Amino acid sequence: MHTTRDDVGSPPGGGDPGETRRGFDRHARYINPKWTEALDLLGYGRLFVRAQGTRMWDAEGRVYVDFLAGCGAVPLGYNHAEIVRAAEASLRANLPSFVQLAPQREAGLLAEALAARLHPDLSRAQLVNSGSEAVEGALKLAYAATRRPGVLHCDRSYHGVTLGALSVMGSSRMREPFPSLPGTEAVPFGDLDAAERNLRTERFAAFIVEPIQFEGGVRLADPSYFVGLRALCTKHGTALVFDEAQTGLGRTGTLFAYEGMGVAPDVLCYAKALSGGLVPIGGYSTSPAWQRRAYGRMQDCELVANTYGGGALACSVARRTLELIDATLLAHVGEMAARLGQRLADLERRHATLGQARGKGLMWAVEFAPPTEGVATVLTLGIPNRIARELFAYWIAQRMLERGFLTQVPAHDPNVLRIEPPLVVSGEEIDAFSDALGASLEENEDFVRFVRGAGGRLIERRLSRDEGR
Ligand code: PMP
Hints:
469 residues; alpha/beta; Aspartate Aminotransferase, domain 1; Aspartate Aminotransferase, domain 2; seven-stranded mixed sheet; binds 4'-deoxy-4'-aminopyridoxal-5'-phosphate
């Protein structure tokens, strides 16, 4: 939907193409050269310089509708007026920010607002700065409370990139370059028997699971799986940890996904969207009983200390964000979810290359059945089928970018395009996105060309990396 500038108001700056190159060069020189190279190869070479609502503008004045939403961190759209106002009010009030030796007023207010919205058992919140840190905190709490040596997680899980969270990462590609915590084991997502076999050993402090595996390719499990897990964890004394960094804060149509599952976890992790798209924050909530078991003694109460967690600015913005994700917005998510689901189902029927559309709320994936012609071309280059298939999703993401829509391939499932617009997305934007996806799926000829060019170079890099392991 590369609308003209007139459709969307004033463009940023003067539309300076040189600014894109300078931005990329600077990033390559001072931050991460290989990452910028990969972006270039994938055809993502754009510098975004302004954002408002569901829209982003690049340095050349082109406008995009964001169906990625900062990987879930931008629930209300960019620079939402009420969020900006909350941040300004917090800054103008000259609040003390990182008080270490006294209760933080704003943190208390946010924790109270969370408790009012969560299951009554989840009344104690610990505030941190990211999803990874929330997961670290949840695992530490379970270890401290149970004094058990292991943690169970799922294949294809994604819980963050700090060392503890990485130890429960369900992808060897991301986990194996680093040492893992001892005693972590993976079981297939949705497989209750496998969970039971492990949990009954009573070696596990926690079972950590995402209600919907997002980076794993938007994988859903039957609700009975979570009911079963709840019963097994209670029976065997394991803390059930739901990582709702992605699914939380309205993404699946309820404030937290567990509400739709008929069970509550012992520890609930949240992050991303609580930031209001502006100020990083994360946290985890648990019951007074679990907290007491872990940190009930006077000498243990500071084992969770961190410098920035509960800071005034982040908490003021998060509290306003919680208020704005209200019943009206959740009803809107429900409506938009039905519309998106319908449009994607239509595409699934019409396009052989779209294998399956799946999702809940405003969290969806389309899984591809790449065109045989394109894949055959790759195979003639001696490239394994698995990698040939992966390229198609990157190719579609690139075509969508050309059409003015931001989407991405998830971390653990390169045959999928993830779809995660801000919760405030409109029906017209969903229709335009779906039309663009349909048009992109019709460009198989160009996929073959892509594979022969930049795609082929990407494959070579990928293969040499795999062989290097
Ligand atoms: N948990 C889940 C389910 C996530 O999807 C992510 C990020 N993709 C994280 C944790 C890590 O969050 P952060 O990047 O804020 O550390």
